[in-house]
Every structure is written in C-alpha cells, then in structure tokens.
Amino acid sequence: MVDNESLSEFLASAVDAAQKAGEIIRKGFYQTKNVEHKGQVDLVTETDKACEELIFNNLKQLYPTHKFIGEETTAAYGTTELTDEPTWIVDPLDGTTNFVHGFPFVCVSIGLTIGKTPTIGVVYNPIINELFTGIRGKGAFLNGNPIKVSSQTELISSLLATEAGTKRDQETVDASTNRIKSLLFKVRSLRMSGSCALNLCGIACGRLDVFFELGFGGPWDVAGGAVIVREAGGVVFDPSGADFDITSQRVAASNSFLKDALVDTLRQMV
C-alpha cells in the first residue's frame, strides 16, 4: 500500500518533469519543426522525442524500480505490457499536429498507475500555462485551484468533444463522419481540440460536458486525464457503458448526470 506522503511526492516529481518538458515545448512551438510521419497524418517531431527522454530520465533517477511506458518508446521498441507495478505512462507531447501548426492546444501528459489503477495525473499545457493535477482520492486542480465537472443534466444543452483520429481508410472515415452527423442532432455543439488529454481536462474543469474518442494512440493519451476527471467528480468509462480499460483505445467521460444519455446515444452508432 502506498501512503499519502509517497503519493504527494510522486505528484511533485511528475509536475517537475512536466514543467521541464514544457519548457522544451514552449521553445520549439515558435521555431521551425523537423517533422516525421508515423502514418498518413500521424506526426512526430524532435520535440516529442526530447521531451520523453527528459521525463523518463528525471523519473527513472528518482524511481529506478518503477516501470515506464511512453508513446515514442512504444513506437520505436513495441508495446510494454501494463502490470500491477507502479508504472509511469507518458505522452511527452499530446497534440503534435497542433504543435506543428502552431495551434496552442498541446500538452505533456504524465500518469502513474498502481495496481493498473490510474492514481496520479498531470497534464500541462505550457503554451497557455495551464497545469492540471490530480491524486486518487485527493481532488483535482488547475494551477492549484480546485476544479469540478459541469452540472449540466441535458445532453441537448451539452458541449461535446471528440476527435476524427488519424486513420484515413474509407470505412473509418465514414464511421467517424456518420457518428458526428448523428451527434449534431443530440448536443448543442461539437469541438475537436486535437488533444485527448486536454479534452479530458476540459471535462474535469467544466468547459466541456461530454467527451468520447475511439482508436486513439494508447494509454499515454488517457492515463493522466482519467485521474483528473474522476477527482473532479466526473466519470470515465468505455463508450459502450462498460468499465474504462486504460489499454483499450476507447474512452468516454462526462459528469454523472450525462453518462447514461451519452452511452444510449453512442450505442446506436458505435
């Protein structure tokens, strides 16, 4: 069992690593980027790689017995299985396409799972200087101030976030656009920010009411944000209504009032 003092220390270490990586992102944001393609529209930059290396080096020095899963190391060396051991799950730059285009919705996402349960969450947008944090059972915060999910009870009055994803085969694109077309009749409006982690934080602080995404990159997109949503009083779940699985590449989040309405709507189209 990990005590509260250790959890606070883990959070402080994650915040420090995120802020150091944020400095690299902030500098790179205003410079010419060296861009590589991981897929047809899925991008990676030198900044992604430098940030992951910095975060891992920082945390490995402090916690040499912990496990580590990162987006760029997974891309290079293959998938690491999530175990019950304390595991740091890192997206060094969520919103790489935004970063390349100078669109300021980018962030560092750091999550710590213990017993496969998301326990620590840090999501930091260094361009607009917003730091979201959460410890399981201890609340969620934005720049040190407590946050909570919206109190919206009607789906038709809700602001929905989702993403189109990076796959461009006809079947995936058709399914995505058909979902969006149907959902526009069910909600007030729809947003695509380009960052799964920041969408989750948008739910946590009440800017967004409902969010779902299918087929995102991996657990690094959700490990930090899932803690923050739950600690802000929200719910994180599979779009089918089943329990959230951090490894499934499927996520939905909302306040407790809107979950059933979102699930009912998505079941008709997912």
Could you characterize the architecture of this molecule?
This protein is an alpha+beta fold and 270 residues long. The protein has two domains: 143 residues, 2-Layer Sandwich (Fructose-1,6-Bisphosphatase, Chain A, domain 1), CATH 3.30.540; 114 residues, D-Maltodextrin-Binding Protein, domain 2. It is 36% helix and 24% strand. The protein has eight helices and 14 strands. A hairpin with a 5-residue loop joins β1 and β2. α1 runs antiparallel to α2. The longest helix has 26 residues. The chain is globular.
- N/C terminus separation: 38 Å
The percentage helix is 25-40%
Our Rg estimate from Cα atoms comes to 17 Å
Residue-averaged pLDDT = 93
Low-confidence stretches: none
* N to C succession of SSEs: HEEHEHEHEEEEEEHEHEHEEH
Number of helices: 8
Write down the CATH class of the largest domain. Alpha Beta
Number of strands: 14
CATH topology of the largest domain: Fructose-1,6-Bisphosphatase, Chain A, domain 1
The count of domains is 2
Strand arrangement across the biggest beta sheet? 3-4-5-6-7-8-9
CATH superfamily of the largest domain: Fructose-1,6-Bisphosphatase, subunit A, domain 1
Portion in strands:
15-25%
Shape: globular
